[in-house]
């Protein structure tokens, strides 16, 4: 019997942070008292509260910088069409940019003029290396 593992694109990014012992103790106290289910729940809630607090500034900046909000998927067929038309792509995303696994480094280099991602970029190591000088 052969088992096939399917990979699923992550819908979040893992981060690491350093927190002072007293602050960590406060978080643990709130978790123990049932205000939050765990430390991660507290941190996600705190981040969302701060994003809500600065929501107007974020919206204005996204509009000013002309960022696409959310998920942008860049596929091989799209890039091949751009190459055939002699055009290039400027990728500007707040969220997640995914360059399809079947996009070669040469195709990416020939068709992606610049790439700015505030969030996460998912692409093969070869494509990331090929676009290294175009990432901002």
Automatic annotation (TrEMBL):
Could you tell me which Pfam families the record lists for this protein?
RHH_8
Q: Which GO terms describe its biological process?
A: regulation of DNA-templated transcription
InterPro entries the record matches: Arc_rbn_hlx_hlx, RHH_8, Ribbon_hlx_hlx
Alphabetized Gene3D superfamilies for the sequence: Met repressor-like
Task: State the name under which the record lists this protein.
Answer: CopG family transcriptional regulator
